[in-house]
Design brief:
alpha/beta
Length: 533
């Protein structure tokens, strides 16, 4: 072979080698581009897309709060009647018809009459007489909150006989209710109002300060913050401790955590994140309880310590810190599993063109069955799951193991989540009381997350711990169908008349699920009958 041919052959070989390297680089770049596209799609979905995996929870025309009035305006929109309330996508009957609620409210009649100088017949000039009364319409009238001063006095009593015959003056008086805070004008109703506005309605104390100023009162945010901390520590903490004790005595606990920023915390900068943990039980456990707990971090030591006496089923997401909890049966979250498949789905994904869509569909089948069995007893639901859901789960994992996802892709993340969580995702097939997902805990912590967007941070650790106590009572009251302001006002009022320390029986009577609380609320919130003057 000539020298020229050798050089030519060598050049071809080198070109083929370079071509091979370039193809490998191109394939690698394609994978990286695909991965970056996945990240972009998920970022867009997180920012602009629906927040729930269920389409029915987000209306196609969902709009921002800012232009809600203008955008939602519809001159032809019907007023809700007294039997039906319209909600997006469907109609439903309310638990209490509007007519029943309106019948309990104080009412007054407005009588429209002709002026006396017009009560003459324009045809013949004779005076007109009333022949009947015609009903025109009803209106609901709002009366702004009323503020009054309550002055406490007590009579003093003496015994004239002892003073006359024994020369001893004996003085007796009534034992007054203990003030919520010494040397303060804070009343149960005032503190309950501030608490529900901040922790239920998400109105920060700075904004409440301005509202009070509009009403003519210079009530500073610092004063209200002191009230929250002192009342939570002195009056609400015993109830919080009992709720926690009863939660841990149950058989199923749901757990989750979220970020909270505390500005003044030893050993940490104001910019660092702390954590608010939430633990709860649902109505299937006999009583719905929500317990919030502030902690400086999200290490496994936190749930381990909180749940040290708990021996039942623990339902969580896939966060590895829960592995530190001992003597519990771990349960996985199929909602997180479904979310992982959703994150891996490209735009326009279907079960015909996307593996992620197939995984998503498997999860939806399980949730559809759970919805169907919602009213079943624990034993009935367990049977149903073992008969139908178990087959779907087995088929699902055979399919998952057949996948060969691209390394670094969202599909690989979903597959890894499924395989790593398999033991925990199967637990719901062993106990009918355990829910299929941890949505319960996520829903419990959501009010805190929404409120955090308004008040952004806690100033001190003491404030964060007090917030955890107040959130616990408010959310537990809500979970048991009790209006939070009414509940807080009632317990703070009644506890003032009880001696310290509170007995366990007294604290039990203040639990939101107790018959005593339900009866007290029903009695005290019933409007007084109207009387004629």
């Amino acid at each position: 072979m000539s020298e020229k041919s050798k050089k030519s052959s060598k050049s071809i070989a080198e070109l083929e080698h370079e071509n091979s390297i370039l193809r490998t680089e191109i394939d690698d770049l394609k994978l990286r581009l695909e991965h970056m596209n996945e990240i972009l799609v998920n970022m867009q979905r997180a920012r602009f897309g629906q927040s729930s995996e269920k389409q029915k929870y987000v209306s196609p025309g969902q709009l921002s709060v800012f232009n809600e009035a203008e955008a939602e305006q519809d001159p032809k929109a019907p007023e809700p009647d007294e039997k039906t309330i319209i909600v997006p996508e469907h109609k439903r009957k309310p638990k209490r018809p509007l007519a029943d609620r309106m019948a309990e409210l104080p009412s007054e009649d407005v009588i429209l009459e002709l002026p006396e100088d017009e009560r003459y017949c324009p045809s013949c000039g004779n005076s007109l007489r009333i022949m009947g009364k015609k009903f025109l319409r009803k209106e609901l009238v709002v009366i702004r909150k009323q503020i009054k001063v309550v002055n406490y006095y007590t009579y003093t009593y003496t015994c004239d006989n002892c003073e006359k015959n024994k020369g001893v003056t004996r003085i007796y008086t009534v034992q007054p209710p203990e003030p919520l805070i010494k040397h303060s004008y804070a009343s149960p109703s005032l503190v309950a109002d501030v608490m529900t506005q901040k922790y239920l309605d998400g109105v920060p104390l700075a904004r409440q300060e301005k509202i009070w100023l509009r009403d003519g009162f210079d009530l500073s945010r610092a004063t209200m913050a002191n009230w929250m901390i002192k009342v939570a520590e002195k009056w609400l903490k015993p109830l919080y401790k009992l709720m926690k004790k009863q939660l841990l005595a149950g058989s199923v606990v749901y757990a989750d955590e979220t970020v909270v920023q505390v500005l003044k915390e030893d050993g940490k900068t104001p910019q660092s994140d702390s954590r608010m943990w939430v633990y709860g039980s649902d109505i299937r456990s006999g009583r719905a309880i929500r317990i919030f707990e502030y902690q400086p971090d999200r290490t496994g030591e936190r749930p381990k310590r909180f749940l040290s006496s708990f021996k039942g089923y623990l339902v969580t997401d896939g966060y590895t810190a829960y592995n530190a909890v001992e003597n519990v049966t771990r349960c996985g979250c199929w909602a997180h599993m479904r979310r992982a498949w959703r994150d891996a789905m490209p735009k326009g994904a279907t079960t015909q063109n996307s593996k992620a869509a197939i995984g998503y569909d498997y999860c939806n089948k399980l949730f559809a069955l759970e919805k169907k069995w919602k009213t079943q007893t624990n034993a009935e639901r367990l049977k149903s799951r073992q008969y139908k859901s178990e087959k779907i789960v087995d088929e699902y994992y055979l399919w998952v193991r057949s996948l060969d996802p691209v390394i670094g892709s969202k599909l690989e993340d979903a597959v890894n989540y499924a395989l790593n969580q398999e033991q925990y995702l199967r637990t719901f097939l062993k106990n009918g009381e355990v829910e299929i997902s941890n949505n319960f805990a996520e829903n419990a912590i959501r009010p805190f997350v929404i409120g955090r967007k308004n008040w952004l941070f806690s100033d001190t650790v003491k404030g964060a711990k007090s917030s955890a106590i107040i959130y616990s009572l408010i959310e537990t009251a809500k979970a048991n169908g009790i209006e939070p302001y009414t509940y807080l006002n009632l317990i703070l009022t009644d506890m003032q008349y009880m001696g310290r320390p509170f007995s366990n029986e007294e604290l039990e009577s203040f639990m939101p699920w107790s018959e005593e609380i339900k009866e007290s609320i029903a009695t005290r919130t019933k409007p007084a009958p109207l009387t004629e003057e």
